[in-house]
Design brief:
155 residues
Length: 155
């Protein structure tokens, strides 16, 4: 995904629209079309991930199977600083925490299973806080997203 975003014309177009709609319009790019494409591709990948989660991971239908995973996904993007090359190591760390929950339960650890189930989410928040405190550089958030957040704070 990183190679596609940084090395192809379409990926660079998507990045330009994500960074600044105004600048993309000035370059002759139709941002609404690019945003629609991104939403459709994101929806496709989300649907595939949901199918894998329900068919392969649990091998049955379970109510609220994705409960809480949205927080981990958002935390993953923020910790990876919107950099596709940092997403894999961050996702592996969060996945390791989820696997550790199952291992710790199988080992018979005398801790509430509800408390153990919180481990991936607690790790997500811990890594998010540590990353925020450790990195004092400029935020890597796309400019258009910063603008939306600043507008919401000023309202």
């Amino acid at each position: 995904m990183g190679l596609w975003l940084y090395r192809t014309r379409t990926g660079l177009t998507w990045r330009a629209v994500g960074e600044s709609v105004e600048h993309a319009v000035a370059l002759g790019i139709r941002p609404r079309l690019v945003q629609l494409q991104a939403i459709l591709v994101g929806g496709l990948f989300s649907g595939l991930a949901g199918a894998v989660l329900s068919v392969d991971y649990t091998q049955t239908w379970a109510s609220e199977i994705t409960k809480g995973r949205g927080l981990v996904a958002v935390g993953l993007v923020i910790v990876a600083r919107w950099n596709p090359y940092l997403v894999l190591p961050t996702a592996l760390l969060f996945g390791l925490c989820e696997a550790a929950v199952l291992r710790l339960q199988a080992m018979g650890l005398e801790v509430s299973s509800y408390l153990l189930a919180c481990l991936p989410y607690a790790m997500c928040l811990l890594v998010l806080v540590v990353t925020h405190l450790a990195i004092k550089r400029a935020n890597h958030m796309p400019e258009s997203l910063k603008h939306v957040l600043d507008t919401g704070r000023n309202a």
